[in-house]
Model the fold of this input.
Amino acid sequence: MEGKITCLQGDGIGPEVMASAKQVLCVIGEKYGHTFHLHDADFGGIAIDTHGEPLPEATLQACLSSDAILLGAVGGPKWDTLAVRPEAGLLGLRKALGLFANIRPVYVHPAVAHLSPLKEEIVQDVDFVVVRELTGGIYFSEPKERTSEHATDTLTYTREEITRIVQHAFELARTRRKKVTSIDKANVMESSKLWREVANEVGANYPDIVLEHLLVDAAAMELIRRPSRFDVVVTENLFGDILSDEASMIAGSLGLLPSASHSLEGPSLYEPIHGSAPDIAGENKANPLAMLYSVSMMLRHSFLLEEEANDVERAISAVLAAGYRTGDLRGEATTTLFTEKVVQELAGVKEGV
Ligand SMILES: NC(=O)c1ccc[n+]([C@@H]2O[C@H](COP(=O)([O-])OP(=O)(O)OC[C@H]3O[C@@H](n4cnc5c(N)ncnc54)[C@H](O)[C@@H]3O)[C@@H](O)[C@H]2O)c1
Ligand SMILES: CC(C)[C@H](C(=O)O)[C@@H](O)C(=O)O
Ligand SMILES: [Mg+2]
Done:
């Protein structure tokens, strides 16, 4: 198999976790006889520095012409006061590629369940997926304006936008435990009232799936109280952003959660849910797992390489079981050491075959 992957390493720890991803893709390619054509493109803060904009046209074209896109993270203090920040490039890319469905699996690995700040008995059976709407809502709606005295953000959703993301969640639930939790603020917000109405209408076409509604404040509480009750969670853009960072602590670290973003047609984008972590950037401390799980999602969904994706996940499990962990999980392994162990584990299986 041959595939073109555009690699947007971005800023902060982005290049460090991207280096891990490339090593793992290289060994998977060698082991299974695939050729992954990896193309780097400038994106985020580094693109502002070199091209004066976070999403240069050449980067967008490279993404559009690839089979999949891998992204590290963008942003950092250096660019925080600019009128056009690196994050604007990320929103622009999501919009330009139509990546409306952001899939964020939350899985508690048994080897690290005891490292979650929550009690082990609360987190041990957790396995759910946040389906976050990614190209609408308050991130994009107009008007959006600011003067020194007044600032406005607008939260708009159309029936069409809600329908397609909720349908995506129901289809996903069919492959899982057949439960959808739709999260909104329908006791206050008009956009949420429409969201709930549409979720009910879509749900009527899926009699095999249980649909429940939760208000977002109660959902934030339930995620801590009994996270194992969730299977597929579907919600709007901003709620999904906040709840998924919260959910990462159920798993044990923000450095563990991957994501995939899909459009109706065209390449999908895979990225950790975390940011550029300026506080640890350049120190070889970043947990590469959110990125490596993003690679396994890419292998599975964009290249239909199920065995290879399973192999990456198996190798990660073996390295965790052997006791290697990065600092965010109270371990001492560096990014490069952890990656090396995963690569050795993958290569070792080849030798045994
Ligand atoms: N997709 C993206 O590109 C993305 C996502 C979120 C934030 N950001 C940007 O990143 C910058 C920093 O944001 P922030 O500090 O609020 O969030 P962050 O996710 O970068 O970091 C939050 C905390 O989690 C830790 N952390 C994150 N990823 C880790 C990893 N892989 N291993 C170990 N520890 C990890 C960091 O050290 C930090 O203490 C901002 O500019 C923000 O806009 C980008
Ligand atoms: C960097 C930022 C724009 C982004 C978001 O809010 O979507 C990030 O937090 C994420 O979760 O991918
Ligand atoms: Mg976020």
